[in-house]
Amino acid sequence: MSKGDATRQAILHRGVETAARVGLSGLTIGELAAATGMSKSGLFAHAKSKESLQLQVLAQAREEFIDAVIRPALTTPRGEPRVRSLFEHWVTCGRTRMPGGCLFVKAAAEYDDRPGAVRDQLVRDHTDLHETIAHVFRTGITEGHFLDDADPAEFAFALHGVMLGFYHSYRLLGDPAAEAHARQSFEDLLDAARPTSDTA
Amino acid sequence: MSKGDATRQAILHRGVETAARVGLSGLTIGELAAATGMSKSGLFAHAKSKESLQLQVLAQAREEFIDAVIRPALTTPRGEPRVRSLFEHWVTCGRTRMPGGCLFVKAAAEYDDRPGAVRDQLVRDHTDLHETIAHVFRTGITEGHFLDDADPAEFAFALHGVMLGFYHSYRLLGDPAAEAHARQSFEDLLDAARPTSDTA
DNA sequence: GACAAGAACGAACGATCGTACTATTCTGCG
DNA sequence: CGCAGAATAGTACGATCGTTCGTTCTTGTC
């Protein structure tokens, strides 16, 4: 049971990497087999079907994202520091071209109009992400860092938008100012949510 | 020369529609031929190659987007009204599921890591879009609607992010509050750029 | 109405897709 | 060692991919 699990993990790791380039629907069993140095049928034995492979890759990407972004953020103090940590790790995840996060952005665009199990899972993951952001932001409210009447759902929407913009500007356009713009937008979001809204 | 142009237009129209669902790389000559009711080879005679078809569809989408969003905005008075008009038409473009705009979002995610002519064109289009937004915003500065030291490029980045977030929340998650969140984010952007920053 | 040009079709190609089935090799337990 | 069972490879399948080629149908011009 040990050997199988090892290759299975290698497959999924490589799968996330490949899917981050060509998309989750562009992911091909033959190509992934070649990338991992095994035969098509050998790989297919692990991934019982194409859709199952996509779901497994998606699950792997989710875990990688949680490990790289969510979990580190939750170890920092509640409130604004935690929100900042979340943002920082998220940006780093994009800057270092860590495939996990990018795969989610890509898959979300790919499957927003294609019903099926993959889309259903993506909806769950994105809903979870929004709820996590809103929850982290809410700790900032209870800590008194943010306004009482600030809307966590609205903040989650806005932060997600900032990150989407960052990914696009950074990866597609290669804009060297992408990160600076994202940081500025993020600070503006925090400024708007803080009780003392003193600007320069 | 008339008949050919008519079917060519029909092909591209249907192509934009299809590509908005399955993506620009997921667009298939056979499927598009079936959708337009013609033979694979008949359609292929128009689109000299797959890549050429993708570029033509992209050009069609660009024109549709310009007609639906950019051009109407440019007919409204300079300054904040024009910025608002741009936003309104953009949101409408997404709400009515007009394929043109959505195709751009999808294609941008698809090709951010796949070199080639399609990606190059996408970069040009997105750069143009950012510059257009920044330019429209700049008219607001010269009109005195926005702060002199506001950064048009930063505003373009932020607005693009808001729209990306809107598309994702609206199309993938089906969140009924997506538009309200986008509107709120947009108003926050304007508030931050306005000289008199009086909040409720 | 004949005829050249353009538009659309049908069939076929090599390649690759996802998926099945059957071997073969490896691995761990007695 | 031997052997069961897991892990991988091999091969083949129907379908579809992008593309090519030759043929038919439509169209506008003299």
Please outline what is shown here:
The structure is a homodimer of 200-residue chains. Helices cover 76% and strands 0% of the residues of chain A.
Give me the strand/helix succession of chain A.
HHHHHHHHH
Strand fraction of chain A equals under 5%
Q: Please tell me what the overall shape of chain A is.
A: elongated
**Rg of chain A, Cα atoms, Å:** 19 Å
Q: What ranges of chain A have pLDDT less than 50 throughout 5 or more consecutive residues? A: none
Average pLDDT for all residues of chain A? 94
Largest interface: A-B, 52 and 52 residues
Structural class of chain A: mainly alpha
How would you sum up the major sheet of chain A?
A: none
Number of β-strand runs of chain A: 0
Measured distance between first and last alpha carbons of chain A? 62 Å
Classify the oligomer: homodimer
Amount of helix of chain A = over 70%
How large is the count of helical segments of chain A? Answer: 9
What is the strand and helix layout of this fold?
The structure is a homodimer of 200-residue chains.
Chain A: H1 2-22, H2 29-36, H3 40-46, H4 50-74, H5 80-95, H6 99-110, H7 117-142, H8 152-173, H9 178-193
The first copy, chain A, binds a DNA duplex (30 and 30 nucleotides) through helix 1 and helix 3.
